[in-house]
Amino acid sequence: MKLIGVDVDGTLLNSENKITPKTRQALIRAGEMGHKIVIVSGRPTSAVKDLAKELKFDKFDGLLSNYNGGTITNYSSGKVLVNHNLDRNLALEILDKTRFLNIIIPYKNMILSDKDHKFLEAEKKLLGLEAKIVSDIRDKLDFDPNKILFAAEPENLEENIPFLKENFGHKTSQVRSHRNYYEIMPKGLSKGNSLLEIAKIYGIDQADIIAFGDEMNDASMIEIAGTGVAMANAVEPIKNMADYLTLSNDEDGIGVYLEKFVL
Known about the structure:
- This protein is of the alpha/beta class.
- The chain has twelve helices and 14 strands.
- It is globular, with a radius of gyration of 18 Å.
């Protein structure tokens, strides 16, 4: 049995935010053969359920790893197998000291922020979730979030990443998931570690993990996988660390690889 982890944006989805027919059929066939398929995403759980349904996860016990490994859910049963949260007091400290950056905090079927901004609207459209403004959330956060996402123009992010690393790097895991996004998560959290957790639950050897990705938040799973597969549209560091370079997300990259080596 293989454990097949697929990133969503830029990997599973093409540039039109759709799963190509060839990739869809290849993943369904792999699931029907008994391989364990996992959608591995920084997105909230509710924002990938339609993709899981399209891939017939209910038929072969597919899994969802969300918030960059913050939660692992069995799609069919809805059972949360693993859940990691930021400590609320730590989250409040981070929110208080980063008022100069836009924030997005996933919560249930919503994304929250203390003010309206273009990145919040973009995420709302992309994820299909309600965006809610909670003006005092930086001071009165009342839940333990899976992650805090900072959104800004690339040059603004680059200016402030050193501050985030210096002040909170020893207490949290951090990753740049997009040129406009930087995420802070519980310490030790990563997409790669979530695949290792899943492999342990199901008794799958690390050598039998296949991971597909394109961005820097996929680095951990490309590194830990027995076979790390980079999309042709991946950023250069991901291509350099991958074991295999497949075609792009617009050229059935996942489907082509699976047909050649797994099916």
